[in-house]
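seq:
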Amino acid sequence: MATTPNFAPNFDQFATSAKAQIEKVAAQFVKNYEAYTAFAKGNVDAVVQSGTVAVKGLEDLGKATIAYRQSSLESGVAATKAALGAKSLRELTELQTSFTKSSLETAVAESAKLSELSVKVTKDAIQPLTARAKSAVEQFSKPLAA
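struct:
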């Protein structure tokens, strides 16, 4: 009569080994998932921070523009009143020349101011995203843990 081979010891060894491998893979999966979640949260935080800075900067730009427009309008009204009170064509020409010169100088100064503010807002708004990109490069440059 033929004997049946006993697979039980090999199966138990296989089951134990498979269980250990599955637990190892599951632990690595959880670790990677937690790392991914933390990384994604960092990305969202950087975008929110960047957006907040940009909105605040645009608000400041808007306020500066409105202040300039209001000042310019007031100067124009004052110049118009002065022109209406001119006693001669020569005085009117001098008033107009003076107003035009000061308006141009103010416009150039305000343009420079707004340009500098725009550059600052852009740099400040991009900074969180740049820092996050640098972090991503550093993180993904590391070799994967076994």
